[in-house]
Amino acid sequence: MKSLKAKFRKSDTNEWNKNDDRLLQAVENGDVEKVASLLGKKGASATKQNSEGKTAFHLAAAKGYVEYLRVMFTHGVDVTVQDTTGHSALHLAAKNGHHECIRKLLQSKCPAEDIDSSGKTALHYAMAGGCLQAVQVLYEHKSPVNFKDLDGNIPLLLAVQNGHTEVCCFLLDHGADVNSRDKNGRTALMLACEIGNSNIVEALIKKGTDINLVDSLGHNALHYSKLSENAGIQSPLLSKISQDADLKTPTKPKQHEQVSKISSERSGTPKKNALEESERNKEKVRELEEKLVKREKGAVIKPPVEEYEEMKSSYCSVIENMNKEKVFLFEKYQEAQEEIMKLKDTLKIQITQEASDEAGDMKEAMNRMIDELNKQVSELLQLYKEAQAELEDYRKRKSLEDVTAEYIHKAEHEKLMQVSNVSRAKAEEALSEMKSQYSKVLNELTQLKQLVDTQKENFVSITEHLQVITTLRTTGKEMEETIGRLKEHLASKEVEVAKLEKQLLEEKAAMTDAMVPRSSYEKLQSSLESEVSVLTLKLKESVKEKEKVHSEVSQVQSEVSQVKREKENIQTLLKSKEEEINELLQKFQQAQEEIAEMKRYSESSSKLEEDKDKKINEMSKEVTKLKEALNSLSQLSYSTSSSKRQNQQLEVLQQQVKQLQNQLAECKKHHQEVISVYRMHLLYAVQGQMDEDVQKVLTQILTMCKNQSQKK
């Protein structure tokens, strides 16, 4: 019973439940706290798979959530678990380029060499994605660099297929196999040429990749470079091929000397043989001619058939000898041409090894000599063909079928002799020309050999030459890079030029549509020129009149401008005078008003003085009364014994009297000051010398007085 219960519990824990579903949703939504709380519950696991084969652990690695992975590691997650597709968390992190997740997984003892169902490691996916940081982390943790998947691809091949240059350079610097092949036998160089990535091609060539390797179909890297759209990929491949060829076939000066000796020996022997044979043939021809002359002298009108056959056989033998001589000369000509081709090849090899301007000049001279030799050879061929054609014609004419009778007529015999003499003369001329041309060719060959010897003497040592070549190659590569950039720039410019050419064509078409026939155009031009001449005369006259009018107008304008200035000056003076008059009038009116108001105020002030005098009199009377009262009170105090209250009242009254006296004195002083001030202001007002502040104060007083009068 206990074992059954334990089995049921295990099955319950491995089944997908609500907590697992919530955990997966929390990872998708990015809620760290919820993930931590759900992992703490019973039955929840980060490595459980749902119906689609997803797990929370793999999802966190695929999305690059490092914090989620830390939380999951604290709850004891199996790092090597794979999903339904056979991918581990490390594979998914590398596939999506999350280098921090990769570092965390590798630190938690996740094996870097784990493979999925397709045999790929995490480095394969990182290289395919092109994430340099992820590749660096995997390399630091000793991920295998040259491990092949089921398709035979190492990580470098996947990076090349996807065109990731930086990652390729990193792996090439850290021990990647440059010549590794996939199932189809293709190398990294072939794949780079196929996609048209020149940077990867150059990096692979620098690392010493083999250009001559062939895939399963027999195609090399140069074939794939021709298939790509980038035409600039072929240049580094061709330069590498030429470098390999130069390193494989370095010619020594001793070998050159041996070649020149052999060629001279070969050229010398056929020359002697040809001359000897030509002399023999000439002697035979002379003998035959002598025989013919003798027979013509002692011949009858109808010569015998035997003599004719002898003549015919001798003539045929001469022709055969001439043919043999021509064939021999043609063979010698071919041998000479082969020697020229060999010399050309040797010269080309030597010219490729040269690194100076003098070598270039020598090359041009040699090319010219070779061209001249080729021309002479072609001329010799033409002469040979012409001679051969003449021989064939003669054979056709003099075949055995044409002999109709046993005897031949003397006239026909003479004609035949003339034809044979002419053909013989032509053949001799052709032979002499062939000999002269052959001697020229031999002379030129000797000159070429001398040039080769001089070049050998002027050649630089191989080590120095190799150093120069290496420097030139480096500069050549740099130039190729600049040329590539310039080609791109040229392509853009060519597009612009094409557009401009289209516009030009359209404009030309429009111009052609708008063109007029030449006759009508000339008529119009002549008529227009006459009109233009008339109009130019009129224009000159009108210009002269215009200049006169312009001078008069300028004078009038100057006079008008002077008058305007004077007028403006007068107007400004008038305005200033008018303003001064207006200001004076305003001041005069204000002064009159102020004088009138001052008069009124003086009258009112006199009334006020009278009132004040009255009040002062009244006050003085009251004071006297009070003094009398005080005296009476003092007498009463002596006479009677007053109380304390009366004494206090007396003191109070005395104080009040003193205050009133002081107030009276102050009022008198103030009154006198005010009167003096008013008198001064009135005098200034009468004289017209009043201050602005005083005027303002007076205007305020007047306004106050007016307001008081209106209120009353």
Distinctive features:
712 residues, Ankyrin_rpt-contain_sf, 79% helix, ANK repeat, Serine Threonine Protein Phosphatase 5, Tetratricopeptide repeat, HAMP_dom, mainly alpha, 23 helices, elongated
Task: Write a brief caption for the model.
The protein is mainly alpha-helical and 712 residues long. It contains 23 helices and no strands.
Architecture blueprint of SSEs:
Elements: H1 2-14, H2 18-29, H3 32-39, H4 56-63, H5 66-74, H6 89-95, H7 99-107, H8 122-129, H9 132-140, H10 155-162, H11 165-173, H12 188-195, H13 198-206, H14 221-227, H15 234-248, H16 253-297, H17 305-353, H18 357-397, H19 410-458, H20 462-513, H21 518-639, H22 644-687, H23 692-711
Fold and architecture overview:
The radius of gyration is 66 Å and the shape is elongated. The protein folds into 3 domains: 233 residues, Ankyrin repeat-containing domain (Serine Threonine Protein Phosphatase 5, Tetratricopeptide repeat, Alpha Horseshoe), CATH 1.25.40.20; 207 residues; 121 residues. It starts with a helix and ends with a helix. The chain is mainly α. The chain contains 23 helices and no strands. 79% of the residues lie in helices and 0% in strands.
